[in-house]
């Protein structure tokens, strides 16, 4: 299936997402706890999809989203965040996010969003 990079500053959330992604048949190539690390791992592994938290210590998700999409305009990034207001969601899409999921999420939401983004249905 797809290779996935997970970025979230909370270790329990990285582990939860890893579990969900792997049980959906995808391979997690790396996990990052902040934006700079996510960018470095993206450059190293070139994953098919990135799940990216918005609020992280160090470089945040908006910074990472900008840098990842600058490095690869075709990057498929799904924001997975507790920040649920529509302004932030719209801003993420304008920067280049392919998807946006609010925490707490259901495992099926993650799997469905990954499949949707991989199929190019992120409009």
Q: How does the overall form come out from the CA principal axes?
A: globular
Main pleated-sheet profile: 5 strands, parallel
Give the spatial strand order of the biggest sheet: 2-1-3-4-5
CATH superfamily: Response regulator
Q: Share of helix among residues?
A: 40-55%
Percent of residues in β-strands = 15-25%
CATH level-3 fold name: Rossmann fold
- Low-pLDDT residue spans: none
End-to-end span in angstroms?
A: 22 Å
The secondary structure category is: alpha/beta
Number of domains: 1
Level-1 CATH class name: Alpha Beta
Question: Care to count the β-strands?
Answer: 5
Along the chain, the helix and strand elements come as EHEHEHEHEH
Total helical elements: 5
* Rg value: 12 Å
What's the average pLDDT? Answer: 95
Characterise this structure.
It is a single chain. The protein is of the alpha/beta class. It has a single domain, classed as Response regulator (Rossmann fold, 3-Layer(aba) Sandwich), CATH 3.40.50.2300. It is built from 5 helices and 5 strands, in the order E-H-E-H-E-H-E-H-E-H. It has a 5-stranded parallel sheet, sandwiched between helices. Strand 3, helix 3 and strand 4 form a beta-alpha-beta unit. Helix 2 packs parallel to helix 3. It is globular, with a radius of gyration of 12 Å.
């Amino acid at each position: 299936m797809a290779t996935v990079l997970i970025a979230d500053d909370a270790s329990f959330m990285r582990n939860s997402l890893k579990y969900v992604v792997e049980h959906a048949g995808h391979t997690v190539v790396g996990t990052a706890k902040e934006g700079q690390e996510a960018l470095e791992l993206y450059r190293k592994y070139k994953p098919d999809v990135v799940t990216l938290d918005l609020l992280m210590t160090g470089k945040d998700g908006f910074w990472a989203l900008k840098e990842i999409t600058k490095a690869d305009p075709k990057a498929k990034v799904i924001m997975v965040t507790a920040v649920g207001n529509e302004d932030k969601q719209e801003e993420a899409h304008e920067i280049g996010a392919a998807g946006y999921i609010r925490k707490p999420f259901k495992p099926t939401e993650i799997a469905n969003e990954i499949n949707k983004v991989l199929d190019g249905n992120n409009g």
